[in-house]
Structures are given as structure tokens and as C-alpha cells.
Amino acid sequence: MSHARQHSFASLFSAVDTVEIPIIQRDYAQGRKQSADVLDAFLVSLRGTLQGEPGQALDLDFIYGTFGDDSGKIFSLLDGQQRLTTLFLLHWYIAMCEGQLQDFRERWTQRGRSRLTYATRPSSLEFFDALANAVLEPPADGSGWSGKLSAVLIDSNWFFLSWRSDPTVKACMATLDTIARVFGITSGLYQRLIDEERPPITFHFLDLERFGLTDDLYIKMNARGKPLTPFENFKAWLVGRVANEPWAKGFDLALDQKWMDLFWRLAPKQNIAAVASVVDDLYLRFMYVMVFFDACIRLERGYSAPRAAVDWLHKLRQARGYIPLRELEAQGAFAAPAVQIASIVLDHFSGPASPADIKTLERALSPTSDYADLVRLFSVVAWVSSDAVTSNSPGLVSERCRWDRVMSNLIANHRIDDVYTANTTLKGVQALAQHAGDLYEALSKATAIPGFGLDQAKEEIRKAGLIVEDPTRESLFTEAELHPYLQGRIGFLLDFSCTPGASFDRDTFVRYSQRARAVLDESIRASAEHLLERAMLSIEDYLIERAASKFSFCSTDGGTYRERSENWLRVVGRPAFKVLLDGIDGDARNSLYALISAATCTDWRRYVIAEPRLIDYCKERLIHRGALDEIYLVSRKRLSGYHAELRSYALYCALQARPREVLPGLGCRYEETYDETQPGLIVQVDAQDLRVTYRSSSWSCSGPSGQVPLPPPLVEFMESQGFTELKA
Description:
The chain contains 35 helices and 18 strands. Strands 1-8-3-4-2-7 form a six-stranded mixed sheet, with helices on both faces. A five-stranded antiparallel sheet has the order 9-10-11-12-13. It has a five-stranded antiparallel sheet with strand order 14-15-16-17-18, with helices on one face. The radius of gyration is 38 Å and the shape is elongated. Strand 15 and strand 16 form a beta hairpin.
């Protein structure tokens, strides 16, 4: 018999003589009252498939069992009893409706005995023999039975009344009544049922003994009335995929023991039943991730790949449940070489894996994992399955450290946010794994690293060359790369440490590295006084352009590569940042204060340098540049939201901070706007509200009757505070 292949009910009986329900099994239960909803749904699905378009098929998953004789012709069924029994009854019913009982007997009886037989009770066995040979005609008018079909059968001369006490027979009679109700008097369905070329209803057959599995576990489960889980179906199918591979000796035992223990350790601690379910889910998730890796590596055309291939990758990426085995087979998943790699990886995680590797695995299997997490896991997969590791090359401990360092740098500084970039990146990792035993030497001679960001690839090549020249440089680079904001992006430090045409200067690198790490520390980036931003503004207008007329002070966040690459990583390589680092002497915070205090700029920047609350106003850290150097502080992301004009808001802040004795009695508030109305400062002078605005490079003041001069005390205050642009 062909093992682990798709069968129909008809083709199964072409391969075996008898399917026996062994004595260890329960009674047939699908026709019982408590199973009525399940049976109805099952029969409706069968009817929809049989009455649907030719070629449409319904897969019923796996049936399991062992052969009870040496000839391999009596199949003892351990899982699938309910489905096969219902299919037997359905075949008999449709054959009866369509005048095909003779064909039914030729197919499903042998020497007058039913080829589906129950060993649970003699009465069950006798009933199936009698039903298989029964002769019955459907109502001539095609209207169905006036009562129940079971009543007609019970009234037949071949039916023994004692059978009504047999739970299996009672359930079969109830199932036949339901079949008659759901299907009515059928026409043309029998030929579809027995079509072995395009079977409408299929399942997979697995011989547990052939795959080295015992039936002990199943017997225990079945004693509790529990069928095999989807994961157990999957495991048995997977064992069958590699049964003839020379490397697969002990594969089945490892699946059930050593590798299973790994996922038990990863599962959250809770009650045993819940943990068992989580373990299965984690195990399956790992397997689907391995299929995702294999499918990406085999995908040839990337962005121009067929839609179906991309959809399959998406399905694997998101899979959290059971993917039908027929679909895995159709996609060529779990070919023997891919399963071998999975076994190597599972051996690694079950044995010598470091805590860091285990964390990588946990993140990748988490429901919240992203593409970068998957690529990080693949970097471990590529390493443990590389030729260098499988051949146990010398120096693997130090080479693994180098591999992890380079992979971490490349992945941390590359956007991997869709299936296409993941595909190219995984191929890049796979290509690098060919040099897993001599990575630095290979990189030092490379011109590019496909699959990763160009800038970071060039940087890794450059650093590898410098390390090959002098291995003591590696520890310097590693220390700088470990900074939580830089995360491997230190090319600017190399630039600052090398003059044109000159070699790398170690002391200069150490100096700039220490200072850069200090000013990019989270405590500085998130400073309430915005020390880094104001110190940078004292040197140049460093703001990052976001869109037309929108500019950013840079976000303090650094959790993702996108956040870092669109913010301070766009600043650190500039000459102005080198000037800032040159100004850091000793404590970074005090040095930034000193730079701010020494600022000499005279344009709009001086207001922000003097008053950090201007940056506070910009909740999204954005400003809008208008004509003639007009700067608007944007409270959200768009100018259509509330906004303030920079100079007038700075004046408002200065007035709020003034000593009590300065301009006593003068009240003020700020009036934001969200349309084309110019925002401005409202001051109360002599019980009169005056609106002070800055526009077109000059200040203006208006009252209830129109334009008025700025109040002299206010002018005096503005001049003392540096608001010198006082054109009328």
C-alpha cells in the first residue's frame, strides 16, 4: 500500500482487504444526540462537495492505524473511525438511492462479509455484514421516506431486534436518518463518490508501525475519547516524508522526545492541558517558520514573483494554527533536505544553544514577531547548518562571535518590513553563510553584501578590512557598536578617525566613540531641556526635512531602525556633529550646557537655543518653514492643526518667565490658530487687549481700532531679551 498518500474511500479499499475497528475503540458515536450538530455540519459539507463543481474536493485529514496481519491487507484503524464509518453509511445510502447496491457489494464486501468491520462487539460486526448485503429500494415517487429510514431497516427481515441495544448500531441508524434528511433521494452522486481519478472526498493514510510510532499514546488518548491532535497528524506525516532518508534514523524519536522537550521549556507555565496545547502550537509555528525560510530561499523572482507564491509566504509568516497537509504537499514543503536542516536546527536549540539563541527563537515564534525577528532566527539557522559548522571546522567559537556581530549590525540597520525585503535579506544571509568559517577575510575582499542596506554593507566591509589588518581593533568597534542607539552604525566614527589619505587612528576613534556614546545616551536624547538639540542648533541648522516645508528636531525614540535612520543617524555623520563632539570635554551634560551658553547665531535658532519650551510645544517635534524665514511650531503633524509662530511664542515664554517687578500689571496669553489666521501674543495694557504678531520679518501690533505701535515698556523688554527685530 502507498503510505502517507491521499486516498478516497474507494481507493483505500483498493489497497487493503479489510478495515477493522479494533476492540480497543469506542462505539461509533457520530449519530448520537449529543453529536447531532457535528454530524449535521459534516454531512452538509459532504453534500456541498458532492454537488459542487467537478474537481472540488474536501480533505478529511489523516487516518491512522497498523496492519494486523503479515500480508498487510487487514488495516486496524486507530484514528478515523467516526469519519470512515459515516462514509461507509453514506456510500451505502447513495448506492441504494441510485440502484448501485450491486456495485457497492462488489466493492465493499468480500465473501459476503463487509470489508468495514467492527471487532468491538459481535452485534456490530453482524450489523455491518447485514447492511452491506441488504436489498432496499428508495420510494418510487422520489419523495423520500414518509417516516424514518431507520424504521424501514428495523422492519426488514434481516434486522435482529437485539441489535437495537448495541450503541454502535443505534448510532448508525440515527446517522442514516440524518443522511436521508440532508441528502434526500440522490441522483448522479455515486459515480462522483467512486471516482478515484478526481476524488471529491479525500484523506491521508498513515501506518504507525511503518513510521516507527507505537500505538500506546493513541490507545491512552482514545480511552479518554480524544482523537489525535492536528500536530500529531502533522508529526506522523512528516516522519513519512523522510522515512527512507539515511540521515533520518531516530528522527521520529527526536520529534517526540528531545525536540518536544525544547518546546515544553519554551511554553509558559500553566495547567498541563493548556501547556500541552501551547507546546503543539509552538512546535507547529517553528515548523512553518522553517518552511517560510525554505520557500524564500527557493523563490527566484522576488518582486516579480507570482502572486500565489507571495500569498503562500504571507500565509506561512502569519500561520498560528494548522495548515492542511494537502496544501503543504502541493507547495513542496518539507522536502527531505529542508527537513534535514530543520532537524539540525532543532538539535542545536535542544543542545548547545546559548541563552541568546533561545531568546532569538522565542521572539521569532512570538505572535508579535516581525520580519526582523525572523531574519535574526534565520541567521542562527544559517550558521548551524553551514558547512563550517556541520564539518566542525576549527575556531568555531570565535567565528560564531564574528558572525553574530556582523549579522546583528546588518539586520539592525536595514528595514525589513515586508515579505519582499525579507526574501532578499534571507538570501543575503544564506550567501554570507558560505563564509561562516572565515567571515572577516571574505568580507575584507568583498565589494558588496547583497540583501542588505548599501551603507551598512559598505561599513561592515570596511571594518572587516581594518580588523584583518589589526585584530585588536575588533574590541574597539564592538564596544561602540553595542550602544543602544548606534546598534552597529559607527561608520561616522571611522570617518572622524581617518584623515584623507591617512590610516586609521586608534586614539582618535576611542575619543570620538566615547563622546558620541555619551551625547547619544537616552538620558541626553530624552532630556527635558533638549540639550542635544539646542547644542546642535548652536553649531548649525541641523533639522531633518520631512516633507515640503516640514522639518524635524529629531525624535528621541530609537527602538526601530526606521526611528533611528530617520532621525539622529542622519545627523551624526555631518561635520557639525564632529564639531559638537570636539566640544565635549569631560561630563557630556555640562559640555552641552557650555555649547548652548556660547551660542552666537543670530537667526531663528537663537530663540530655540534660549528657550527649550519652544521644542516642547512641538509634540511631533516638527516645525513649518514659511516665506521670509517665518517659522511655525506645529503641535501635531500638520499646519492645519493648532500651531504657533516661533518668535511670538518665544516672546510669550519670556514674558511668562519675567521677574514680578518687570512690567508689573501686564497680562499676556498666547493665541494659537489652526487656519490661515496668524497666531500671536495677546497682551493686556491699560485694560486693552493688544495682539502682537511677527510676520514678513517684522513685528506688528493691533488693537480694537487697528494697527497701533508696540507699547514702549514692551519694546524695552524685547530689546533687553534679544528680540531686536522691531521694524514698524
